[in-house]
Amino acid sequence: MLPSVLNYVQVRRKTRAKTFSTGFDLGRRPFEGVLPPTQARRSMHSQVLPTTQGLARRQDSKESPKSLKAELEVRAQQVEESRSSRVKESKAELEGRVAAEAPPHFLSEPAARSHPPPPLFRRAQSFVVRAPQRLPSKSRVTTDSLKNVMHELALEVQPWLGQDFIPHSRIQTAERDFGQGDPMESKTWGLIAVKLMPTNFITKGHSEFMDEYPSSIEQPWLDFALVRTLETLRYPYVNKLLGIFRDHDTTYVASPFAAEGGLFKWSKKGKSPGLEREAEVLPFALQILDAVRALHDLGIAHRDISLENILITGGRIKIVDFGMATLQRMCTNEVRGKPSCTAPEMHLDAEYDAFLADAFSVGVVIFAMATREYPWLSTEQGCCPLFEARSRQGFVASLLKRRNGSTQGRQQLFDVLSRGLLELLEALLFVDPRERACLGEVCFKGQLSRASIWLMAWLSSARL
């Protein structure tokens, strides 16, 4: 027994010696490589040994101590630089992963100001839109993802139970905003807005709808899917989809009720056009510009931006009605939107940029908010004298002869609107899309010939 034990001890010593000198043993069993502290220190000394031996050899060869010291300092510096670079790479990788996984934030609290805002500028909100803020590129919406969402929504449709939804009798008919639907009291959500649409038009899903109405310019299931997708992306300017219900004749779409109504209703009241009204318009204009810019960065063109399709709730705007939206930036022979808000290039046979078409619509909306009237009734050639004059003379020149009916003494709009607002409207309402300003989208980055609205004075005054 004794010789076999001695042989085993000798074999283990040889194996451990190999383990200490190399730092690991390829043939070891699990947990054999875990060393006690004393043995670990010995292993450390065995790994440093080659450097010590090399130093001894250099001393034997009578090499200068100064050169040896310099070489050791160089080695130490190289080791430190290597360690620092690894730390920086790890930190950069971690920061990149956190930035990619973090939810997009569109709104931020205002920074502290060392001086008060201008007396005519009265903030309607306690926040400032920091524009433009970017979303991760992986957040772009795709056709395949929308198809999946439309399929899921079709499976989620529930039967309509009338006893669970009671019409809200306290809201008078004259005060209702039918753009968002009828106000109802729900046992689950409280006060909500419910849109009623014929079931034979909505059908049971997107595929069936496209089979029944292949040439329809408005697609309800696309609207539902985009709203649900934007909710998932935490896009703050969308009115949530609470649920879809159906009975034999009607399909009911429930969403939160916007107590302040739509922007069309807001634009009809308030102060007369002038600096005080512009101060009220500015916070909403900032949100609209940021909302549409963010849609474009997600790859979505709305194509139906209008006063009627923007709701206000708690001082925040919500964009609705995505039924005419598209994921294709370049479009041909597709006229979309309200006649007064439609970009003029949509009426041509040539290809148009849907992002720049949305920018034109935003310009019309801001004009209507500031003046309480539309700049024209239609952008189609030969349909509206006001737009024809705008096309011939230019935006500012056309305002020199146009008087505003809602101001005292019917003043000229050129004298009523501030120079900063005129600059912004001129940039957004160029008839030629090649001269039109963009909303600061990523796709226009680096185009020196394309102006960005965020560099204009009227908007910069809001970011003090």
UniProtKB/TrEMBL annotation:
Residues 155-455 form the Protein kinase domain. Residues 29-96 are annotated as: Disordered. It comes from Polarella glacialis. GO terms for cellular component: cytoplasm. Residues 45-54 have a biased composition (Polar residues). It comes from the Eukaryota. One of its GO terms (biological process) is regulation of autophagy. Residues 57-96 have a biased composition (Basic and acidic residues). This is Protein kinase domain-containing protein. GO terms for molecular function: ATP binding; protein serine/threonine kinase activity. PANTHER family: SERINE/THREONINE-PROTEIN KINASE UNC-51-RELATED (PTHR24348).
